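Could you join me in thinking about how sequence relates to backbone shape in a protein? We need material for that, and I hope you will provide a protein of your own picking. Label the sequence line and the structure token line clearly, so we can match residues to local backbone shapes. Would you write everything just below, so we can both look at the same thing?
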Amino acid sequence: MNEIDEVKARLDIVDIVSSTVTLRKSGKNYSGFCPFHSNTKTPSFVVFPETQTWRCFGACAEGGDIFSFVMKRDGADFKDVLEDLARQAGVQLRAPSPQSEEEDKQRQKLLELNAAAADYFHKLLTAAPEGAQTRKYLATRELTSDTIALFQLGYAKDEWEALKRHFLDRGYTTDELLAAGLIVERDDGSPGYDRFRNRLIIPIRDARGRVIGFGARALAADQMPKYLNSPQSVLFDKSATLYGLDLAKKHIRQVDRVVIVEGYMDVIQAHQHGAQNVVAQMGTALTEQQLKILKRTTGNFVLALDADTAGNSATLRGINIAREALDRETVPVPTARGLIRYESRLNADIRIATLPPGKDPDDILKDGLEAWQKIIDAAVPVIDFYFQTVTRNLDLNTAKDKSAAVHNLIPVLRDIGDPVEQQHYIQKLARLIQVDERTLIAEMKRQPKQPVPRRKPTVMPPVSLAQQPASPATTAPKFNNTLADSGLETYCLSLVVAHPPALAAANDILEQQQMDGLGVNDFNRGSNKDIFRAMQLWTAADNPQVSTLVDMVGESLAGQLLSLANFWQNRPPIPTETIYKDLSIAILRLRLHNVGEQIKELRFLQREAVENNNFESARHYTAKVKEYSQYRKKLEHTRDALSITGKRRTEAVL
């Protein structure tokens, strides 16, 4: 039994789900209202203890295992969920080396120290006489006691070594206090005094809610700087941290949008007033790491900027980073039919909300949540913001400034993947500077964007890791996974690993048959969902290497991916001319299997509802059975229309 299956064996999905969803026992199963969508009157969310799976028979129509539930609930990737659930289950994921064991001990010690420091600062604020002035300051900001407790705000004494003495008395060493950034060295290199003195302390947490550093606001008028952060450490990386993400991530996923503000207090005030999808960047500009963290949860970004910083260089730099990190990436793009194609184009909706002059989020939220939401909803697309910012100080009646506008805006227009949207902005720029559109189009062609070429389908032979360049992740995986569920999910994934172009080609075949291409929700196992997400980007590369994919999925899934890569070693090869059709049919068979299981579940729930005289639920399940049965007929017809030979070949392999 591998570690993933051992975690499943030790944990009960009912216990995990019931921490989020109020479940009602109904026969052998449990039902409740789906936590992933609202506006439902029927408890369409069902947990099946026998199979340790869940499914929503309502709007989101998703399902899976214990891992996929926690991944969706928390907006987390498989690695983080595996670590959390393994910890709950008491499963050790890897045999630690002496070095890694020592590093883990040090990291855990610093986490414990930071948690203790946060508690120390919080008690000084809430209970100590020295914290009275800070309590008055927070009262002027109208922060409630619940908000102060939620964010665990604290106070640092106006003394040089108060914290240092406190923790040395409790067995911590000066080296540990230095490593955590709680004290600083003296000029002679000896460990000296407290870093934070006479300041409001704001604990900074990672996405999992662990204290990794501190922000500290000056309380005296002459204190510099106004805000002081913990230094870079093994725990705290400012460029890869977003303040408030631990509290906001569920709400970001629910509304499918994140609002990024500029400071700690903005986040705290926003959450107090009910705007719970708000986080703050750390530093003067967004970083690529911060954006990639947020991408796991949503593709819709709103930058809420103060009027006096909306056009400054740091803001523009942050937006440029967003364009580089999100827009230029080769990504899977949904087509009109919901299929996936691979293009170099906008991978996120980035909008800019400029706050009224002289107002911060606190001022706006005091007028009510609706006033804040109105400003966020009115956020302009990033391209429109560029137009406003670039042309603000230009005299567009002069040839020189017209040229400057074109020079600055044409690169932005080239990044627009949608031709209709691109033409709209070309027309807008032409009207703005009063030149013929053809002049701008010629300029764009003169310095064309370098697109990612659409590769002609080429067939690669089945690959194994031995054929790939070695990397640390591939030569020494932390543990070996086996293909516990060697079935259709495994077959589809292994075929894509062996023949990367097959994914796009098979999706094209399905699109011609008016069917969706292979998607994340076709998989039930959380580990397979995460592997497939990585595959969608990996297959778009010009020369995808298995070692690269192993690096993308990380250590937690390395063993399972190696098994997929070696799946074809002892099996008959598929003729190259039928690979794409085989994958198309395998996808349809996977869906037929899944929808068949769902119909069985629905009929069971239907009978159960009738037995309990719950006729409203019975009618709901009856309608769903009819809907799913019609979908099954469509799948069967499409499978038969493609060919029966692929089906037989798949069965022979499996």
Summary: Residues 327-346, 447-486, 645-654 have pLDDT under 50 and may be disordered. The chain has five domains: 3-89, 111-236, 249-392, 394-446, 465-477+480-653.
